[in-house]
Amino acid sequence: MLRRVAQALPLALPLSLAATAASAHPHVIVSVKTVVVADASGTIKALRHAWTFDEAFSTFSTQGLDKNKDGKLDREELAELAKVNVESLSEYGYFTDIKSGKTKAAFGPVQDYYLSHDGKALTLHYTLPLAPEAAQNLREARLSVDDPSYFVAFSLASDTPVSVEGPACKAKVKAPKAETTQRLSQLSEADFASGKLGNADWSSSISFECP
Hints:
Layout: H1 2-12, H2 15-23, E1 28-38, E2 44-53, H3 55-61, H4 79-90, E3 96-100, E4 103-104, E5 111-117, E6 122-129, E7 142-145, E8 152-156, E9 162-165, E10 170-174, H5 178-186, H6 189-193, E11 205-209
Parallel strand pairs: 1-8, 1-9
Antiparallel strand pairs: 1-2, 2-6, 3-4, 3-7, 5-6, 10-11
């Protein structure tokens, strides 16, 4: 999906959206919900992501995919797009970081991926297992989902954005300052290219509290 939008934005989006994309970041807005799957000892085994894309991007991405013309997009019609999305995301490390101190987790092959559509927006569902050699414990781990280039703006969903499946641990979310994200959204392509991004930190950091 990200590869497709990067290639097609200048050519195929409606003029109003193209004008907006040409003038300011971000180009795509994603609302993130994540379930952190861990064993009884608190070792993280996988992440179950659900990423909901903004309506404009969802409309653009699904043009021509309603093959049976019933006005709905089912999982089968979205299957090929889901495959392309997941394969493209691997090039960017799934925009997901889990660290304990300076040790960064590696991920195994994606599992159980699919796209759903609620009539307005696309949601990409997928499970991202941690590689066995990159074990991370909830008590020490820090999780973030973000795009360093701010081409995609990731924000955590307002309703239970991060939860834990397994041990009785709770997620603690440290959101970026509102003025930081506001400033970034007002920057143009030229501003980003010239380095005006600076050292701004617009990602949400998630830590965990365990008994």
